[in-house]
Design goal:
By secondary structure, this protein is an all-alpha fold. It is about 75% helix and about 0% strand. It contains 6 helices and no strands. The termini are far apart.
């Protein structure tokens, strides 16, 4: 499973939000990546972009939901369901948790 397989057919904002969520644990700057994901997700919401997933993207999102736990799984689930506002609420919770670690 590759990030580009999920982001290739999305809008610029959705693709970047996904990219930063996907990599936040692996690049050494989790808080920065989560805040970037938040910025792009907010822009997507402000622009009223609609989310329409392909079958392959739904399969990838299902795997992400199954492969993560807690609030992170909820973010992926809400994105899969097409509810970026709800995903943002959970993303804010994840950002708060990362801030509390510092």
């Amino acid at each position: 499973m590759e990030c580009i397989d999920l982001t290739a057919d999305t809008s610029f904002c959705m693709g970047n939000a996904i990219k930063y969520m996907w990599r936040y644990r692996s690049k050494g700057r989790p808080l920065e990546d989560l805040e970037k994901a938040r910025w792009y997700l907010c822009r997507l919401i402000d622009r009223g972009e609609r989310i329409a997933w392909t079958r392959q993207q739904c399969d990838i999102l299902s795997a992400l939901v199954a492969g993560t736990v807690g609030v992170e799984a909820r973010i992926w689930a809400k994105l899969k369901q097409g509810f970026p506002d709800s995903a943002l609420i959970f993303l804010d919770e994840l950002i708060k948790r990362e801030k509390d670690k510092q």
